[in-house]
Amino acid sequence: MEWFITGVLVPVVIAAVTAFGATWYATGHADRRERRQSDRAATDAIRRYIRALSNRADYLEEVAIAAGHWDPDASIIDPGSDEEVRAAYQGAASFFYRLNVGEGERAGISNTMPDLGHHAMEGAGNFAERAELLQQALDRGLLPTQ
């Protein structure tokens, strides 16, 4: 009977505990890796939108400073485009629910395009303000997924 306990039962119990522990450990690592990849995808998409907003704000500001005499061929600023901003918004919109923003700030990121305003400088300010709001929210970190 003693040989059964030491020769059979103990190795079987050790193998079962080891298998359970390895599975639990691997599953935990896979979950954390999946969460990191999800966070990275969300952060990258939101940063692309921030970059598109910033590029458009810089372009509008340069146009306003040039007072209508802006030469796009002589500029080193990436003019961006409304389509580029919309495409970046579409890529990032599905991740906005993870931004750590209050109700007052949520309205600032709710629509696709900031208001262009009546003057290019006003539009530049609106685009820059949206980019700054998103960057501040991103700096606070993403909310965990549900």
What do these coordinates show?
- The chain is mainly alpha-helical.
- It has a domain at 42-139.
- It is 68% helix and 0% strand.
- It has helices at 2-65, 82-93, 103-106, 120-139.
- Helix 1 (2-65) packs antiparallel against helix 4.
- The two termini are 52 Å apart.
- The model has no long low-confidence stretch (mean pLDDT 75).
Question: Which H/E pattern describes the elements?
Answer: HHHH
* SS content category: mainly alpha
Low-confidence stretches: none
Classify the beta-strand content into a percent band.
under 5%
Q: What's a quick, concise take on this entry?
A:
It is built from four helices and no strands. The protein has 146 residues and is an all-alpha fold. The protein has a domain at 42-139.
Label this structure with key terms.
146 residues, mainly alpha, 68% helix
Topology:
Elements: H1 2-65, H2 82-93, H3 103-106, H4 120-139
Helix pairs in contact: 1-2, 1-4
